[in-house]
């Protein structure tokens, strides 16, 4: 289990959860001294409000924590605030919040710290696993999220294409998977010219990383993650402010790795394939240019409309390879468009699929796991904006409208045989700290997809 969790401790201090609706009954359950102290302190159970309660003979005797009003405005990960509030010692839930497993998970997610470059004091509290909560399961989820966060938070000087390949190899070795990579000019030999074009401007060689695990005869699940380890924008260079967070442009790869990790740890009965096109989009004399035309792995020629829209190019080659073996389910993750953030903000990832059953299941699991996603349409008439006068397709439509939809439509041209395809345009970053979500890298959509895959493939 997670190091914060313990199986039992009879002397653990109580955490009392309260809402405006049940505050009176919670107050009655407190001992008389604690109830009087809470009354004198003016405690009200608003979301995130807390009060340390005194012990009878001094010291800390417990903690009151407000959940706020029930309903759609409540942050279902609000218990994550406890990761920063709880003093050292052993703690337990004195009463159960509405979603106890999610509350425990939120605390573990809130306790995450990125420690590669400085010493950060670990949390000194320990939490007793509440009755009915699977401590190993919430630990598994928290570990997968931390794995992705660590990758996204690592700056590009320490996480380039080669280092991302090493991360995949280490993950594969831990689970007995086969991992291979096609590197640099070998990409041209094997027919991946778009990945090569995007990465050739960097001294750090581009590559296509390929992990395979599971029974070859099982249903085929393929994950594709955009692995742009740093995005300068290329010759269509980004302004400095926009470049500052571009270490996170491999957040799609991080999410795909985290989900692959969960699939292998759960030993789901699938033939898993993970594809990561890993590149750095740099500026140099050998960088690809606006207006260049390249063939793709699928055979379609692509006119480069904007070198800062490089992610869809590397994904196109990887998706074409994935699609060639007609997987039962093909999922790609990518920090693809600013338009997605304008439409839905940093917390909600747009999801694209033509599979109505998959879309319905995805919405249900996103809601159940408090890992929000929102379906946007693959509105085919917008694809006309990708027409090119000299190639089979342009990479970007003129005008700038519906950018996330148009990017998804571009990718759809490289997916024909997959029985079901899902594209996720994620942000992979929490810009302001929230309960359970420290500022920094985030494993967007991983928990929702994990829940969906468990249901789909464990029947």
From TrEMBL:
Record-annotated M17 aminopeptidase N-terminal domain positions: 20-130
Any one GO biological process: proteolysis
Pfam families on file: Peptidase_M17 (PF00883), Peptidase_M17_N_1 (PF21337)
Domain of life of the organism encoding this protein: Bacteria
Stated name of the protein: Aminopeptidase
UniProt similarity note: Belongs to the peptidase M17 family.
Gene Ontology terms, MF aspect: manganese ion binding; metalloaminopeptidase activity
GO CC terms: cytoplasm
Keyword line: Aminopeptidase, Hydrolase, Manganese, Protease
Ranges of residues in domain Cytosol aminopeptidase: 147-449
């Amino acid at each position: 289990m997670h190091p914060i969790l313990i199986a039992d401790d009879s002397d653990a201090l109580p955490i009392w959860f309260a809402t405006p609706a049940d505050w009176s009954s919670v107050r009655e359950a407190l001992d008389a001294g604690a109830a009087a102290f809470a009354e004198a302190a003016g405690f009200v159970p608003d979301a995130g409000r807390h009060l340390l309660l005194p012990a009878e003979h001094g010291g800390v005797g417990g903690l009151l924590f407000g959940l706020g009003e029930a309903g759609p405005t409540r942050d279902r990960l609000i218990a994550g605030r406890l990761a920063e509030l709880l003093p050292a010692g052993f703690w337990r839930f004195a009463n159960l919040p509405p979603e106890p497993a999610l509350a425990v998970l939120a605390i573990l997610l809130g306790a995450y710290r990125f420690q590669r470059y400085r010493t950060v004091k670990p949390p000194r509290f320990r939490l007793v696993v509440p009755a009915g909560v699977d401590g190993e399961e919430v630990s598994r989820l928290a570990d997968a999220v931390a794995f992705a966060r660590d990758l996204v938070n690592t700056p590009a000087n320490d996480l380039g294409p080669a280092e991302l390949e090493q991360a995949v190899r280490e993950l594969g070795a831990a689970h007995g998977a086969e991992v291979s990579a096609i590197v640099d000019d070998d990409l041209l030999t094997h027919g991946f010219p778009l990945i090569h074009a995007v990465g050739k401007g960097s001294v750090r060689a581009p590559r296509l990383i390929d992990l395979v695990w599971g029974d070859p005869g099982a249903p085929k699940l393929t994950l594709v993650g955009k692995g742009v380890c740093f995005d300068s924008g290329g010759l269509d260079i980004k302004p400095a402010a926009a470049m500052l967070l571009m270490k996170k442009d491999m957040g799609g790869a991080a999410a795909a790795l985290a989900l692959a990790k969960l699939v292998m740890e759960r030993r789901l009965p699938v033939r898993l394939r993970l594809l990561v096109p890993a590149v750095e989009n740099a500026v140099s004399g050998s960088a690809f240019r606006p207006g260049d035309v390249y063939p793709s792995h699928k055979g379609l020629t692509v006119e480069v409309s904007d070198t800062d829209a490089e992610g869809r190019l590397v994904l196109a080659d990887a998706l074409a390879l994935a699609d060639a073996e007609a997987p039962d389910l093909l999922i790609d993750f990518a920090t693809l468009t600013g338009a997605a953030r304008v439409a839905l903000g940093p917390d909600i990832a747009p999801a694209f699929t033509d599979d109505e059953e998959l879309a319905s299941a995805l919405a249900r699991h996103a809601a159940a796991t408090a890992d929000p996603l929102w379906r946007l349409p693959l509105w085919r008439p917008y694809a006309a904006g990708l027409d090119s006068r000299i190639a089979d397709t342009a990479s970007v439509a003129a005008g700038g409208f519906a950018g996330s939809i148009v990017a998804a439509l571009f990718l759809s041209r490289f997916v024909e045989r997959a029985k079901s395809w899902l594209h996720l345009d994620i942000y992979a970053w929490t810009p302001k700290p929230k309960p359970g979500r420290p500022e920094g890298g985030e494993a967007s959509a991983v928990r929702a997809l994990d829940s969906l895959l468990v249901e789909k493939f464990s029947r």
